[in-house]
């Protein structure tokens, strides 16, 4: 808890949670994990209830006007916060990387709130890698494209996982390759998407891990949906859910 | 050589230029950052060039300047080259070493392609060599001949002097004059067209032998 | 090449067929993974790769910004050096110019250096229809031409063929085009290269007209630059009495010095070599040769007019983006229905040809937006950005439009989203394992996640963020 920006002002770290529409609707457990983790680390977490969706699906599928509308709304909701934390590399990168491009392409002005992916917020802002978590399982990590090549979070997520007590982190072969989700790509090009996922699943199986972890539930929904369909027995878990576990949860 | 009677396509020229101007109207000017290396001092030029040429399957020998004629003769003997084409302007002692016991063919008047195809090899100097990329540059200057000379024969023996070696590509570009036709050569002819694996030996000389005079 | 891409169905259908072809999958995987490793190694060797990439991007942007000035400068320099410059607004005009130039020599055959521009305009087919045979001399182009096939990669048009298939093509087809393949031909790459050498040797030595493209043209000096590996380029550029180069107007570089950047970027990105075996540079008419330069627009100025899309014109045709693309690796090049396949093709083809056909409208969607192409691009073309930009321009299916509008309506107000979530939760047990309509594409291979009983926002509301 020694980030100068916050410490100098002697304030508790106040963060706005950008839950993302996918997590809000389908994976509320991830949101609860983020809240409990950040509170454990001394943050004051707010949930701006007016938030809906960042507009990624619309923009990336070619519906720019709808996307701009949602981006405007997002800017209004989150403009006042020093730090916005999202448990999704893809949605965080949508705001940080794509809003400026969207503004240029659509010829509009957009507010770009300061959004962090969870691992960036923990490692860069709070400057912690050991979050006091306990998770005695064999885990492999899929870095997800937008975290890796959009936000460039690098090894921040694995640094966090390495500090989790009891956790055995096994490297994922060809980790940097896309799982084939790509939003509407998964249904517009199902054959290629499934072929990409089949290769990802094969690599996951080769690690012998019990749990596949990532910082994006969209990718996990895709890979997890295939793991489940193939009855592999490998579970998928969001990074926040692993980091939130402590010995008390045993 | 006929000069074809084609009407100049003036209107298309004007059309394309007008389209270009309309397309970029109002676009911002762009500054070119040149933060890359333009020299790489401290490089051991001779050994790096030798290593990099060897990487691309050229046969390389490093010898003192005085021993170049001997190395030329030895290379040609090993190759068993009996008929050799030699461009004008090659140092006399190299030429003499090559000529001993061999037939020398001169490219004056210029040889026909099929005549060139019947010689066993070609001996040349070079203009510049780039150590980092293992590249030899010929610019049709003295001792290098026209471009076809180092293309049609199956064997190319090239002598590089230490002073001609630069470390990196920008230094070579700075030394060269684009008015003269150039050939940049990095190893023998090769292809990556079969399964993206490099194999040597297609249409150009299948053997490139380089003598570096240190 | 007598086959064409015209009339192919949309990308997803082509890709579905390709993905089921295990031989093709194997060939592509092997080749792209080989080159990925080589590229990464030689790029990693340079301490200033990022600076070279930044310079390459800026030089291209600067050139495009001032393209009119540099084209005129080039024309003057080439003309001064004894060359002839022709301007072609479209494919038809370029084909007509080349045909007339070949006819003026009285020849009925030409040798060709691998050139994307001449493939783009369908020059070989145009010449064939007028009694002129164009012989491809690049090994991969030869394989495509002999096999009556279509190119599937920018650098290695026959990447979809493995050594055994190439041997078969050589044995069965070389005799129709010239010297037959050696009887005891093996599938060793070295033996196959040797067969190509023998097959083309006589043709190189006797053909009087050559047609090429160019990798770069230098405006200040009028110099053309061709990078290659085999020596077929040097044969075509050097030996014939007449040389005709068809080059896209975006291939310009302002100064001789600018080559110091691109001669480092291109070979390392392309074949994963520190330097390609041969680079030829010539200025105007050389060594008694007659030289014609045909400057080709064919849609490029339309691309230039698009503020976001114009960055595609920076492309130096290295194919690094193809080699790292997970979609290309599985779909292969033919699925893109264009001589420009892969990520760069997905943004270049619909811009050059327009979004009129179903195929061209489907190309911007032939990507998961994973960003590997942008990372690999030596001139930093933000391919995902252009893909998304083109998706916004494409016409969408009515059902999809309605669905997206409905989603937009729900997301417009948090209360609507909350209501929709509650509705989903109430009926969550009724969601079928296999979805109907277009969403079946998901459930064909993947299970659906369970819909939770309570959304996050309702949980937060009910528990005051977990504090109650």
UniProtKB/TrEMBL annotation, chain B:
Signal peptide: none annotated. Residues 112-212 form the LUD domain. InterPro entries: FTHF_cligase-like_sf, LUD_dom, NagB/RpiA_transferase-like. Pfam families: LUD_dom. This is L-lactate dehydrogenase complex protein LldG. It comes from Thermocatellispora tengchongensis. The lineage of its organism: Bacteria, Bacillati, Actinomycetota, Actinomycetes, Streptosporangiales.
Automatic annotation (TrEMBL), chain C:
Residues 73-285 form the LUD domain. The keyword Cytoplasm does not apply. InterPro entries: 4Fe4S_Fe-S-bd (IPR017896), 4Fe4S_Fe_S_CS (IPR017900), FTHF_cligase-like_sf (IPR024185), Helical_ferredxn (IPR009051), LUD_dom (IPR003741), LutB/LldF (IPR004452), LutB_C (IPR024569), NagB/RpiA_transferase-like (IPR037171). GO terms for molecular function: 4 iron, 4 sulfur cluster binding; metal ion binding. Keywords: 4Fe-4S, Electron transport, Iron, Iron-sulfur, Metal-binding, Repeat, Transport. PROSITE patterns: 4FE4S_FER_1. This is L-lactate dehydrogenase complex protein LldF. The lineage of its organism: Bacteria, Bacillati, Actinomycetota, Actinomycetes, Streptosporangiales.
């Amino acid at each position: 808890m020694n980030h100068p920006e916050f410490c100098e002002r002697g304030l508790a770290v106040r963060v706005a949670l950008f839950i993302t529409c996918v997590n809000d609707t389908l994976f509320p457990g991830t949101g609860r994990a983020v809240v409990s983790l950040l509170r454990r680390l001394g943050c004051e977490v707010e949930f701006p209830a007016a938030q809906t969706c960042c507009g990624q699906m619309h923009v990336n599928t070619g519906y720019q006007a709808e996307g701009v509308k949602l981006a405007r709304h997002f800017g209004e909701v989150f403009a006042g916060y020093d730090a916005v934390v999202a448990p999704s590399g893809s949605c965080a990168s949508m705001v940080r990387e794509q809003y400026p491009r969207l503004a240029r392409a659509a010829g509009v002005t957009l507010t770009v709130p300061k959004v962090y992916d969870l691992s960036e917020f923990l490692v860069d802002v709070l400057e912690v890698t050991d979050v006091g978590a306990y998770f005695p399982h064999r885990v492999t990590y899929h870095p997800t494209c937008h975290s890796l090549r959009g936000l460039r979070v690098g090894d921040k997520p694995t640094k966090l996982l390495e500090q989790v007590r009891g956790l055995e982190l096994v490297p994922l072969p060809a980790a940097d390759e896309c799982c084939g989700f790509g939003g509407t790509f998964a249904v517009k090009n199902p054959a290629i998407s499934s072929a990409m996922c089949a290769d990802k699943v094969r690599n996951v199986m080769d690690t012998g891990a019990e749990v596949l972890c990532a910082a994006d539930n969209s990718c996990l929904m895709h890979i997890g949906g295939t793991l489940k369909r193939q009855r592999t027995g490998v579970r998928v878990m969001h990074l926040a859910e692993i980091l939130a576990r402590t010995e008390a949860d045993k | 050589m006929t000069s074809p009677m084609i009407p100049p396509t003036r209107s298309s020229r004007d059309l394309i230029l007008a389209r270009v101007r309309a397309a970029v109207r109002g676009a911002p000017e762009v500054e070119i950052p040149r933060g890359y290396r333009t020299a790489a001092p401290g490089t051991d030029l001779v050994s790096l060039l030798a290593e990099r040429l060897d990487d691309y399957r050229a046969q390389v020998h490093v010898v003192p300047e005085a021993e170049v004629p001997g190395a030329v003769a030895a290379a040609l003997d090993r190759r068993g080259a009996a008929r050799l084409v030699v461009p004008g302007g090659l140092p006399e002692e190299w030429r003499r070493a090559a000529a001993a016991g061999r037939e020398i063919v001169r490219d004056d008047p210029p040889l026909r392609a099929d005549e060139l195809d019947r010689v066993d090899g070609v001996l040349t100097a070079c203009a510049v060599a780039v150590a980092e990329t293992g590249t030899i540059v010929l610019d049709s200057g003295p001792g290098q001949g026209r471009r076809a000379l180092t293309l049609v024969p199956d064997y190319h023996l090239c002598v590089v002097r230490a002073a001609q070696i630069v470390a990196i590509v920008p230094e070579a570009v700075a030394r060269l004059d684009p008015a003269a036709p150039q050939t940049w050569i990095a190893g023998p002819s090769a292809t990556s067209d079969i399964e993206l694996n490099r194999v040597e030996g297609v249409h150009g000389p299948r053997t490139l032998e380089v003598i570096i005079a240190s | 090449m007598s086959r064409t891409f015209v009339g192919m169905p949309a990308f997803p259908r082509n890709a579905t067929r390709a993905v089921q072809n295990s031989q093709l999958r194997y060939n592509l995987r092997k080749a792209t993974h080989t080159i990925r490793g080589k590229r990464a190694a030689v790029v990693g060797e340079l301490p200033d790769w990022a600076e070279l990439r930044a310079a390459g991007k800026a030089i291209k942007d600067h050139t495009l910004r001032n393209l009119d000035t540099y084209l005129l400068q080039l024309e003057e320099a080439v003309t001064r050096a004894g060359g002839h410059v022709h301007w072609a607004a479209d494919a038809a005009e370029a084909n007509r110019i080349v045909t007339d130039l070949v006819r003026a020599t009285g020849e009925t055959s030409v040798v060709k250096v691998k050139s994307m521009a001449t493939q783009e305009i369908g020059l070989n087919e145009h010449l064939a229809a007028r009694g002129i045979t164009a012989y491809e001399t690049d090994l991969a182009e030869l394989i495509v031409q002999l096999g009556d096939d279509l190119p599937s990669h920018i650098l290695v048009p026959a990447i979809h063929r493995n050594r055994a298939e190439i041997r078969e093509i050589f044995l069965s087809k070389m005799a129709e085009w010239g010297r037959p393949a050696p009887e005891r031909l093996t599938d060793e790459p070295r033996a196959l290269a040797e067969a190509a050498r023998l097959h083309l040797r006589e043709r190189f030595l006797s053909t009087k007209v050559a047609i090429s493209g160019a990798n770069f043209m230098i405006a200040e000096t009028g110099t053309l630059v061709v990078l290659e590996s085999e020596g077929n380029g040097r044969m075509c550029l050097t030996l014939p009495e007449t040389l005709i180069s068809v080059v896209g107007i975006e291939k310009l570089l302002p100064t001789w010095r600018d080559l110091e950047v691109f001669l480092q970027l291109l070979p390392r990105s392309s074949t994963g070599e520190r330097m390609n075996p041969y680079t030829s540079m010539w200025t105007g008419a050389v060594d008694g040769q007659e030289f014609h330069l045909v400057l080709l627009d064919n849609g490029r100025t339309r691309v230039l007019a698009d503020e976001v899309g114009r960055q595609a014109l920076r492309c130096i045709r290295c194919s690094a983006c193809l080699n790292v693309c997970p979609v290309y690796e599985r779909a292969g090049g033919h699925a893109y229905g264009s001589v420009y396949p892969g990520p760069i093709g997905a943004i270049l083809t619909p811009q050059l040809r327009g979004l009129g056909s179903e195929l061209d409208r489907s190309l911007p969607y032939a990507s998961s937006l994973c960003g590997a192409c942008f990372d690999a691009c030596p001139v930093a073309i933000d391919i995902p950005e252009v893909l998304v930009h083109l998706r916004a321009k494409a016409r969408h299916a009515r059902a999809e439009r309605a669905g997206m509008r409905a989603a937009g309506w729900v997301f417009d107000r948090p209360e609507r989203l909350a209501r929709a979530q509650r509705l989903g939760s109430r009926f969550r047990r009724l969601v079928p394992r296999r979805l109907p309509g277009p969403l079946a594409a998901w459930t064909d291979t993947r299970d659906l996640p369970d819909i939770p009983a309570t959304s996050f926002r309702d949980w937060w509301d009910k528990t005051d963020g977990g504090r109650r």
